[in-house]
Amino acid sequence: MHRPAAIAATRSAILGILISFLIGELAGAPLTDAEQRGRLIYQEGRTSSGYPFMVKLPYSPAPLAGRAFPCAACHGADGRGGSEGGIDVPDIRWQTLTKPHDTAKRTRGPYTKRALRDALTRGLDPARNPLNPVMPRFQISLTDFDHLFAYLQRLGGNLQASGLQPSGAGHARPPPEPQ
């Protein structure tokens, strides 16, 4: 190998290692307090304040406890969605929600924080299309919504910090219980 080519190859290798390290460091940043509180809501359907939030289902005469309907129960621990009981459950990772969506079934613009709040509380997407009626309508405080929003922005981008572990095929699962 010629000397200039060897130097260029070495520089490229060092740059690649440095970029990988920096990306790994940024992606491995621990969750903030708000994100940790949002993770409780997402994964367990409970708030860290102890204040219960409720959900309303269109076919239910009374509100039900949010603990019975954590987001992860349908959308998965990693937010990728899938199929639950024959119903297509959408991917709710922030990088997916912030892209416009255009299919034969539905067209909508990208989600914003306000549009996400409308989806969770009113059952409407950014284009004001109604969401599937099985999607609960959350009766959640602004503070708890802010926590959930903070976590959703991080969901899918950092499995380690989100408390998830890879399970193959791009999906994730909750960490195992301590022995």
How is this fold's topology laid out?
Blueprint: H1 3-27, H2 33-44, E1 54-56, E2 64-65, H3 71-75, E3 82-84, E4 87-89, H4 94-97, E5 101-102, E6 107-108, H5 113-122, E7 137-139, H6 142-154, E8 165-166, E9 172-173
Antiparallel strand pairs: 1-2, 1-7, 3-4, 5-6, 8-9
Describe this protein's structure.
- The chain folds into two domains: 1-30; 32-173, Cytochrome Bc1 Complex, Chain D, domain 2 (Orthogonal Bundle).
- The chain contains six helices and nine strands.
- The chain has helices spanning 3-27, 33-44, 71-75, 94-97, 113-122, 142-154, and strands spanning 54-56, 64-65, 82-84, 87-89, 101-102, 107-108, 137-139, 165-166, 172-173.
- α2 packs across α6 (142-154).
- The longest helix is centred in the first third of the chain and has 25 residues, at 3-27.
- 22% of the residues are buried.
- The model is unreliable at 15-26 and 159-179 (pLDDT under 50).
Please describe the biggest sheet, giving its number of strands, its sense, and whether it closes into a barrel: 3 strands, antiparallel
Tell me the number of structural domains: 2
Question: What is the name of the CATH architecture of the largest domain?
Answer: Orthogonal Bundle
The percentage of residues in β strands lies in 5-15%
Order of strands side by side in the largest beta sheet?
2-1-7
Distance between the termini: 54 Å
